[in-house]
Amino acid sequence: MDVDVDLQTVRIVRAIAEHGSISRAARALGYSQPAVSQHLRRAEQRLGVPLVVRAGRGVRLTEPGTVLARHAQSIGQALDAARGELAELVGLRTGTVRLAAFPTASSTIVPRLLRGLREAHPGLTVRYVEAEPPEALGMLRDGLVDLAITFAYPGDRADPHRESEGPVETVPLYTEPVVIALPESHPLAADGGPVELARLGGERWIAGCPLCRGHLLAACEAVGVEPNIELETDNAVAVLNLVAAGLGVALLPRLALATAVPPEGAVVRATAPSSDRSIQLVLQHGSRRVPSISAVLDAVSSLDGRDWGLSTTSR
Hints:
Blueprint: H1 7-19, H2 22-29, H3 33-47, E1 52-55, E2 58-61, H4 63-89, E3 96-101, H5 103-106, H6 109-120, E4 125-130, H7 133-141, E5 147-152, E6 168-183, E7 195-196, E8 204-207, H8 210-222, E9 228-232, H9 236-244, E10 250-253, H10 256-259, E11 266-269, E12 271-272, E13 275-284, H11 291-301, E14 311-312
Helix pairs in contact: 1-2, 1-4, 2-3, 6-11
């Protein structure tokens, strides 16, 4: 038995899955609701099964509809690849790529990356959204972005990249040192050398985002210290000013210091043992064939991490 499924039906079903109603799906696709409803009815007649059923004020997908929606992303990627290769023939004059990255990358890596892309490919539109790694990877899995710049701490049991194992590709970019911020008056800040975390028992700590907080707990646990976390903020400027006010000590990723200068009263030192995290670019497996995504990969590879105190990972 032949099953007649057209691309437009796949797009409509995916839009319904994302938006929860025919009217919202129609708006997202740029069609009228009657046109979408009529197309669905014809598709259901051809297939001999319902694709959607009423559910309250909206609709939900039936099992056949769910099957189509599940395959919609890979079908869309294949189509994007075909369109992209055709666009490449005319010199990548047009195209759109969607990017997500974490906050400290927003003020360092991302501006340089977007400027380079604009200079090399003025017809390429980049849509950017800031998101911590768990949210960025979720957006990538859901097809809401094409690429995500993320970070990960070695051995992190809550590493969100583990949930993304499968149809994704990870491109290593940089190794980023993690440093410690101390009040200038702190006894361990005096000699300018690395600060031993094992000597910070009893200190008040300032923690950052959930992943950074997890790293703080793990790093302290490894040296037998139980951190007393009194303050929490992922705003690097706020962290440094809290430290300068003598309200605690904090671990900070090196990128945070690229745009947030330690104020008077705060100093930054390396840690002992040393600590770092990895920065990577994550994309859907096979999507680097799309020229707009390939352009981002090329642009990112041309950036020098040393400008922000990072070391480039061989790739």
